[in-house]
Design goal:
The protein is mainly β and 56 residues long. It is built from no helices and two strands. It has strands at 17-21, 26-30. The protein is globular, with a radius of gyration of 11 Å.
């Protein structure tokens, strides 16, 4: 996921991230479970970061 809000955020490279888009807003949601669901952006360091698999 390299598109969306906060392109400089570590979340865009994480396997746990889910994009949430409403009519007026966009959010990055962490699906990991032990950290806040909607962390303040941009995230520069994260204890549960897991690199997302490379997309072809």
């Amino acid at each position: 996921m390299n598109e969306g809000p906060f392109p400089q955020s570590l979340c865009h490279q994480c396997a746990h991230v889910r994009a949430v888009n409403t009519r007026t807003s966009s959010f990055l949601r962490c699906a990991e479970g032990t950290v806040p669901k909607f962390p303040p952006q941009p995230v520069r360091a994260c204890a549960v970061f897991l690199a997302a698999p490379a997309r072809p």
